[in-house]
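pinging the channel bc i need a second pair of eyes. not urgent but kinda urgent?? the chain im working w is below, pasted from the shared doc
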Amino acid sequence: MSHSPLDVLIAAATRWMDADPDPQTRSEVAAVIASADIGILESMFGGRLQFGTAGIRGRVGPGPMQMNRLLARQTAAGLARHLLVAEPESRNRGVIIGRDARNGSADFLAEMTNVLSHNGIPVHVVDGPAPTPFVAFALRHLNCAAGVVVTASHNPPEDNGIKVYWGDGAQIIPPTDRAIADAIEDSVTDGVLIPAVGNAAPIRQVGPAHGDSDLVAAYVTAAKSLVGSAPPEPVTLVATSLHGVGAPLLGQTLWEAGFGRVMQVADQEQPDPEFPTVNFPNPEEPGALDELLALAANSGAVLALANDPDADRLALAAERPDGTWSALTGDETGAVLCEHLLHHLRGTPDLLFATTVVSSRLLGAMAAEAGAHFSETLTGFKWLCRPALEHPQWRQVLIYEEALGYAIGATTRDKDGISAAVVAADMANRLEGEGRSVWDVLDGLARTHGAHVTANGSIRLTGADWREKLVATADRLAEDPPTQLIGLDVVRQDQPAGDVIRLWLEDDTRVVLRPSGTEPKSKYYCEAIEKVITSPEAAREAARGRLNQLTAELSSTIQPESRP
């Protein structure tokens, strides 16, 4: 007997409702079933959230297409099932788990902790909200087999997610992510999510992500090791956590590293899952740093620091010669941090720098000038950390991606906006002593390597089928890439991954096109390099002119094809 699509969806919703431990989402599903709204049912039960950037991320709500307590249980069951096969020592080493302060994070952490424990895997739990980089650090410090962070990073308030690390401290990559996804499906199919209580392994609270615990002390010590001795007269800094979880650990780490003159944006300092003072809790978004810049302009600060809500990203802002404050781009921050680190390490053999295929080419030029090793990887720190893992004889100094992610030091496997902030504070202190600013550093780099100017953007997709639209757009561009842009021939192209296309124009302007791994966006990244003849700013203006034309043309080039 055949069943209609509506019957299939209602059956799936009913099965989900029967297994759901949350009365709130159960009642939401019951209401949707009663309404028989096939569109809403499809959006909740027409598939399952798939692993993207080392985990899953989506809106909080009922069903396997959204984030909820049952999905957290299922994810933990699949992770446990794969861990016990792939890493049998996980029964001894355990898993560490932490969370941000978003809606649902505490409940999702509790569900995952319970499932992992009842599958015989010890669980180390960070008390209260914790920055993602703190959990990643604790994983290696405690020699855990894996790590989990319940977070949606800088996504909108209605989102949440689950991020998974493996025992090497890096985000999971294929085939591990696929194996976990398959194990989740197996757990859902056979219904074994929480085995008998007799198999429960211990749950250990490791303390909060700030204060005087041994774990916090170890993190702070590691961050302090990235800079020299504490300055006798530290500069004044301003900072914001954008209503996230990073402020306590950032303040403590800066203080203990000798940078105690830090003023936080008061109404953004405490965690708030609604992010009330910003439209979008991402330091890259227009307006997100308005309160930080206003505080900086009236405080005598030398540098402004902004973490995203889970504190794995860092944005910098500084005063320009005309007295206005503005943020550096992610690539500009990568360049000035590289210059500062090379100032202390130049001449040291086998240094390693790495960035991604969508980031500026300036880091590669700086590494070449310094005689250092340089690698270019796919986007995401799950790939950026691989050169150091593959070449342990090299000393990783800085790996970064243009989306404000920086990992500094030989043992850092993922982006860390707090330890990077300590290095930025050290840089600000040094430049202040030399009578220079970050803008002076960038001008000097432009004179040496040319003015590297970037223009990045995205086209946001709508509708429940946005994932299909992303795939279709990427496939179309790969099969039929442009042969000319802004009147210039495309003289070279490559495909670092199946859905990433890079194009070089005849004037060496570069364009990269790719779909987002976690959001309904089709992204583009453009870079023009202009030789400095009269001044760095004149060269930048010339490059910006070309990029303005290019981005206008790209917006129509990469629009997803409309469906009939």
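so The chain has a mean pLDDT of 94. and The CA atoms of residues 278 and 288 lie 6 Å apart. — does that match what u expected or am i reading it wrong
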